[in-house]
Design brief:
Layout lengths: L2 E8 L5 H15 L8 E6 L6 E8 L2 H14 L14 E5 L4
């Protein structure tokens, strides 16, 4: 069953645009090869200029877990650490039947 993941990322002050660009490059590079990943969109938080929200779609929780394990092993998301003010928050959702 498909899932969505809402990821909230807080950029270091004034660096949200850099964070957005980096995420877009990572998705462009790794997204097409990620099995079970139809895509994602990025959103700005209107009342907080340092927060970026990404909403990702996955065909299943297992597809996401496999991707996250591979990303951790390869360091695909490591460049994000330089731009983040703290840990990101991910909320995994499944539509109610």
């Amino acid at each position: 069953m498909p899932i969505r993941v809402i990821v909230e990322l807080r950029a270091k002050p004034g660096r949200r645009d850099e964070l957005k660009g980096l995420i877009e490059r990572i998705v462009a590079r790794h997204g097409p090869s990620a099995s079970g990943f139809p895509g994602s969109t990025r959103h700005e938080v209107l009342d907080d200029p340092d927060v970026l929200v990404e909403i990702a779609e996955w065909e299943s929780p297992e597809a996401r877990v496999a991707h996250m394990q591979e990303a951790a092993a390869t360091g695909a998301y490591a460049p994000l650490a330089e731009l983040l003010a703290g840990p990101f928050r991910a909320t995994v959702l499944r539509q109610l039947p």
